[in-house]
Amino acid sequence: MPAEGTNIQKDLNPLANAERQFDEAAERLNLPQGIREVIKRPRRATIVSLPVVMDDGSVRVFTGYRVQHSIVRGPAKGGIRYHPDVSLDEVEALAAWMTWKCAVVNIPFGGGKGGIACDPDRLSKGELERLTRRYAADLSDLFGPESDVPAPDVNTNAQIMAWIVDTYSMHERRTEYAVVTGKPLEVGGSAGRREATGRGVLFCTREVCRHIGMPLAGARVAVQGFGNVGSVSADLMARSGAKIVAVADVSGAIHDPKGLDVTALLRYAADRRGVQGFPGSQPLKTPIIEYDCDILVPAALENQITHENADRVRARVIAEGANGPTTPEADKILAAKGAMVIPDILCNSGGVTVSYFEWVQNRMGLYWPEDEVNARLEQYMVQASKDVLAKAVEHGVSLRVAAFMVAIERVVKVIMLRGLYA
Fold it and tell me: Is 337 one of the annotated binding-site residues?
């Protein structure tokens, strides 16, 4: 029994799953063992103790982390998360994930990730600011536009990025907006950043639909998760002619086989903080993962499609708006059914792509209108989708394995060209 439980737990660990996916792609590329070790291991891992004066005058010491997995293709890129369960192992795995995500979409960044073990819901705004500034100050030797560029992640936001900008700028004695991305527009943020991940989901889904000869216009779409990524994806797909037939969020799940009015649903969900009870819809009594649709967009949590329910997935295309929504065992089942999974490292990379645009705009001091940002995003996402589709056809592998192969090849090629310093 313990062994079986261990296997199930491993199947449900998205970070362990990413390593398994990497290993499968690396095997197909016949990488030498030494090079494989080079690209799997993080370049640098930093742990800092962060003393903070609390509102009541007491002092608490928090633990912060920053991992640079790779900088061979450019500065480390990746978010900072605030959560009680943040650990070095988690941050290391997420940093590697960012290396592959940046490489597959071919932006000149490496991979990084950071975090602080804390519960931000139990901190006042002042305590949160002091904690953020202490973290930014202690890691100011790592951070920088040409070395390591953080961004928001779990429980962090544009305001926290603005505090990091100010702290870093004070230490450098100059204003430096390019040290982080995901900032407010007034502090060097980019137009189109909020919608970028959902817009990238649309572009990737459209390319895969073209590849398999299934028109996006008229396709029935079910969306799990109606937060930023899910709601934007649903809105843009509806504007492209798709029919949004089911939506689920924390409040519940609704459906209408004739198609939901997404514009009205967006207003309703914003007012009611959920989709449940939307006029004209019916409550969905079965899991949305199993809904009869052409395209499924899991844009909520990890481990939503597993070996237990994958055989009941009816969608022909699964567009991963979330990170790690499909386990490796489920991937095999879906492939046997003929379903195409657009992997997270490709499908939801629109956000980091526009973060790259934000960094470029900061460094130029020239800011693009939203339509130009969106046009550039489309160019990058379409090309990345074509690269992955071509690799999948060439090697007869899934889109996920193909995406890892594309990413790994790009990182390895730079390593080989630069050589190993000794």
Answer: no
